[in-house]
């Protein structure tokens, strides 16, 4: 079969779909181009060529300053947050075998937001390094509650989604209530919290944000990819997965932990950016089919591309105003969600 | 070689007991068929033999070892089960589906060994799915789809294969096609086949060994020609009939009384 590429050594053997390799290469190229454009555009225009010169260390110093200390961290964060949300959504859709689920739809993002809001309002004296822990704790608490409420001798995907939507709404409302009622909240903190609730990567820095987020990505994304095999057999149903020898419940729990942690870490830095976790896996499946060895990396690349572009529009469309990127992901995502609901209305 | 048996098995759904203290041995290298009326628990029994259901008491033994104490992958290399009406994710190709049957032999670094390639190729050939390998499973007809799933269980390369109603929802042509395929697998490769079938006549024709399930126990078991008669059908299916001899195969053929146009 010529559309497969086999790679074998003494201790390893893999089979790749050629289409997947092409799609991944094209998406990497698109991401690189988008990054260069994002770094170049803004109140000061820097041409792509000048950007590349700066990147390889021969650019002019004021350009390099703008690129490295102002725009680059934002671009890097967009890539990481977008990829994390997308992979979290891809895993979740596989775990609950429901194409309508994603961390924001079933309340995990809501829990992470609440965790972050609590951190911003009450623990701001602590190092920002601890913020993802608060967000991830919130994400896990929400996931646990949704699971608990949806559990009735097993979990049906539909009940999980319905309970999740309710939970997401309640948690968001609760977060806003906290922001509004915390009487000691200085206006600046309240504004920061509000922006956070829409999802924004405005004003991120290397030290504070990039260095906080990357360890989570470096650990969680490879585990997600390693677990793709287990998700593939789970997609055939629990009974078939058991038949081929997979320990379904253990694998599912680990996958859920990875998904929740990815969403939590992403929200800690990027805020409640919606719909990327829902959209990216669908686009990925359209491009490379439903096998997770392909869906996971392609979702990650699409998630990062979508957030790069959303943030670019948010940043330059209304100069000097800097709109939260979440507004634009929602503007594309909400109609997409309605389209999905429409398509799956019968199942 | 693999010997599958149930020892002192007690199964229940919630509080309602289905089987109690049941002993059963599956003959090696033969085709066994479980029959019984709807809801008699024949599927439950099959599923518990494949460790998809946990027994309340007693155990399933595979080659003399308790199946619950063996690792999942170890069992999966000796015994495969195809559940009833499995669903493949949208857009999954036949090749991708059949590959999943190799899961018990794979690890993260070994995802496509030469063994894997050989068995997937063979499974596709045996089921005549090689031409359709790049088609998506959901675009296939019912019979082709069932053949794709059987190919997946074949790729697992187990001496014993269990199938829960493999012919349900298929038209007659495809029912025969699937059963012929399973017959060949038993005949040519000496695989032990255990399945649940609804059609008593097809069961009599293809099975070396019939297990009739009734009221939480085994009513009778043995060669169809030795056990299937009018009284047997009356007791197991609660139906009056005449048992004739199949004019082509010589196996028992059950003709129900009931109503209908009478020409003789």
Automatic annotation (TrEMBL), chain A:
<keyword id="KW-0813">Transport</keyword>
<feature type="transmembrane region" description="Helical">
    <location>
        <begin position="211"/>
        <end position="228"/>
    </location>
</feature>
<keyword id="KW-0472">Membrane</keyword>
<feature type="transmembrane region" description="Helical">
    <location>
        <begin position="20"/>
        <end position="52"/>
    </location>
</feature>
<dbReference type="Pfam" id="PF01032">
    <property type="entry name" value="FecCD"/>
</dbReference>
<dbReference type="InterPro" id="IPR000522">
    <property type="entry name" value="ABC_transptr_permease_BtuC"/>
</dbReference>
<dbReference type="InterPro" id="IPR037294">
    <property type="entry name" value="ABC_BtuC-like"/>
</dbReference>
<feature type="transmembrane region" description="Helical">
    <location>
        <begin position="158"/>
        <end position="178"/>
    </location>
</feature>
<dbReference type="GO" id="GO:0033214">
    <property type="term" value="P:siderophore-iron import into cell"/>
</dbReference>
<comment type="similarity">
    <text>Belongs to the binding-protein-dependent transport system permease family. FecCD subfamily.</text>
</comment>
<feature type="transmembrane region" description="Helical">
    <location>
        <begin position="130"/>
        <end position="151"/>
    </location>
</feature>
<dbReference type="GO" id="GO:0005886">
    <property type="term" value="C:plasma membrane"/>
</dbReference>
<keyword id="KW-0812">Transmembrane</keyword>
<feature type="transmembrane region" description="Helical">
    <location>
        <begin position="184"/>
        <end position="204"/>
    </location>
</feature>
<feature type="transmembrane region" description="Helical">
    <location>
        <begin position="254"/>
        <end position="279"/>
    </location>
</feature>
<feature type="transmembrane region" description="Helical">
    <location>
        <begin position="323"/>
        <end position="342"/>
    </location>
</feature>
<feature type="transmembrane region" description="Helical">
    <location>
        <begin position="291"/>
        <end position="317"/>
    </location>
</feature>
<dbReference type="GO" id="GO:0022857">
    <property type="term" value="F:transmembrane transporter activity"/>
</dbReference>
<feature type="transmembrane region" description="Helical">
    <location>
        <begin position="72"/>
        <end position="92"/>
    </location>
</feature>
<protein>
    <submittedName>
        <fullName>Iron complex transport system permease protein</fullName>
    </submittedName>
</protein>
<keyword id="KW-1133">Transmembrane helix</keyword>
<feature type="transmembrane region" description="Helical">
    <location>
        <begin position="104"/>
        <end position="124"/>
    </location>
</feature>
UniProtKB/TrEMBL annotation, chain B:
<dbReference type="GO" id="GO:0005886">
    <property type="term" value="C:plasma membrane"/>
</dbReference>
<keyword id="KW-0813">Transport</keyword>
<dbReference type="InterPro" id="IPR027417">
    <property type="entry name" value="P-loop_NTPase"/>
</dbReference>
<keyword id="KW-0472">Membrane</keyword>
<dbReference type="InterPro" id="IPR003439">
    <property type="entry name" value="ABC_transporter-like_ATP-bd"/>
</dbReference>
<dbReference type="GO" id="GO:0006826">
    <property type="term" value="P:iron ion transport"/>
</dbReference>
<keyword id="KW-0408">Iron</keyword>
<keyword id="KW-0547">Nucleotide-binding</keyword>
<keyword id="KW-0410">Iron transport</keyword>
<protein>
    <submittedName>
        <fullName>Iron complex transport system ATP-binding protein</fullName>
    </submittedName>
</protein>
<keyword id="KW-0067">ATP-binding</keyword>
<dbReference type="GO" id="GO:0016887">
    <property type="term" value="F:ATP hydrolysis activity"/>
</dbReference>
<dbReference type="InterPro" id="IPR017871">
    <property type="entry name" value="ABC_transporter-like_CS"/>
</dbReference>
<dbReference type="InterPro" id="IPR003593">
    <property type="entry name" value="AAA+_ATPase"/>
</dbReference>
<keyword id="KW-1003">Cell membrane</keyword>
<dbReference type="GO" id="GO:0005524">
    <property type="term" value="F:ATP binding"/>
</dbReference>
<feature type="domain" description="ABC transporter">
    <location>
        <begin position="4"/>
        <end position="240"/>
    </location>
</feature>
<keyword id="KW-0406">Ion transport</keyword>
<dbReference type="Pfam" id="PF00005">
    <property type="entry name" value="ABC_tran"/>
</dbReference>
<dbReference type="InterPro" id="IPR051535">
    <property type="entry name" value="Siderophore_ABC-ATPase"/>
</dbReference>
């Amino acid at each position: 079969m010529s559309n497969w590429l086999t790679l074998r050594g003494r201790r390893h053997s893999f089979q790749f779909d050629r289409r997947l390799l092409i799609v991944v290469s094209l998406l990497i190229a698109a991401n690189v181009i988008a990054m260069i454009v994002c770094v170049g555009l803004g109140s000061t225009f820097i041409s792509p060529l000048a950007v590349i010169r700066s990147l390889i260390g021969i650019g002019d110093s004021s350009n390099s300053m703008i690129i490295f200390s102002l725009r680059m961290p934002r671009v890097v964060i967009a890539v990481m947050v977008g990829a994390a949300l997308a992979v979290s959504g891809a895993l979740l859709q596989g775990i609950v075998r429901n194409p309508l689920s994603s961390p924001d739809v079933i309340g995990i993002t809501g829990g992470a937001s609440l965790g972050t809001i609590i951190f911003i309002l009450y623990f701001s004296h602590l190092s920002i390094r601890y913020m993802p822990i608060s967000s991830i704790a919130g994400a896990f608490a929400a996931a646990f509650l949704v699971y608990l409420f949806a559990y009735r001798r097993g979990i049906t995907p539909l009940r999980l989604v319905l309970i999740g939507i309710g939970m997401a709404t309640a948690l968001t409302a609760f977060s806003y209530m906290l922001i509004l009622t915390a009487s000691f909240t200085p206006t600046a903190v309240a504004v920061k919290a509000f922006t956070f609730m829409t999802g924004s990567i405005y004003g991120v820095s290397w030290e504070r944000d990039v260095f906080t987020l990357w360890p989570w990505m470096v650990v969680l994304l490879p585990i997600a990819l390693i677990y793709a095999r287990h998700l593939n057999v789970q997609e055939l149903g629990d009974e078939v997965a058991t038949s081929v020898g997979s320990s379904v419940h253990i694998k599912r729990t680990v996958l859920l932990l990875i998904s929740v942690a990815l969403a939590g870490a992403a929200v800690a830095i990027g805020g409640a950016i919606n719909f990327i976790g829902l959209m990216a896996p669908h686009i990925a499946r359209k491009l490379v089919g439903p096998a997770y060895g392909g869906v996971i990396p392609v979702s990650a690349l699409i998630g990062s591309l979508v957030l790069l572009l959303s943030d670019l529009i948010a940043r330059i469309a209304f100069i000097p105003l800097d709109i939260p990127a979440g507004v634009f992901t929602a503007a594309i995502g909400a109609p997409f969600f309605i389209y999905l609901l429409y398509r799956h209305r019968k199942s | 070689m693999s010997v599958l048996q149930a020892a002192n098995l007690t199964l229940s759904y919630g509080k309602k007991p289905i089987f109690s203290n049941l002993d059963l041995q599956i003959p090696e290298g033969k085709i066994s068929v479980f029959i019984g009326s709807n809801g008699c628990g024949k599927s439950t029994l099959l599923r518990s033999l494949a460790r998809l259901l946990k027994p309340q008491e007693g155990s399933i033994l595979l080659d003399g070892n308790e199946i619950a104490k063996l690792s999942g992958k170890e069992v999966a290399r000796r015994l495969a089960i195809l559940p009833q009406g499995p669903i493949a994710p949208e857009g999954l190709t036949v090749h991708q589906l059949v590959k999943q049957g190799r899961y018990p032999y794979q690890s993260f670094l070994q995802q496509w060994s030469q063994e894997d390639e050989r068995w997937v190729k063979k499974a596709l050939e045996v089921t005549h799915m090689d031409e359709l390998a790049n088609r998506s499973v959901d675009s296939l007809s019912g019979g082709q789809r069932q053949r794709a799933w059987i190919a997946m269980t074949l790729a697992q390369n187990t001496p014993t294969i269990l199938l829960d109603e493999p012919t349900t929802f298929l038209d007659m042509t495809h029912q025969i096609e699937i059963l012929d395929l399973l017959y060949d697998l038993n005949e040519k490769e000496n695989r032990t086949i255990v399945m649940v079938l609804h059609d008593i006549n097809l069961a009599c024709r293809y099975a070396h060994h019939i297990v009739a399930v009734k009221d939480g126990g085994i009513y009778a078991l043995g060669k169809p020609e030795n056990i299937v008669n009018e009284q047997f059908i009356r007791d197991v299916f609660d139906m009056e009939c005449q048992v004739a001899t199949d004019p082509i195969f010589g196996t028992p053929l059950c003709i129900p009384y009931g109503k209908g146009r009478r020409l003789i």
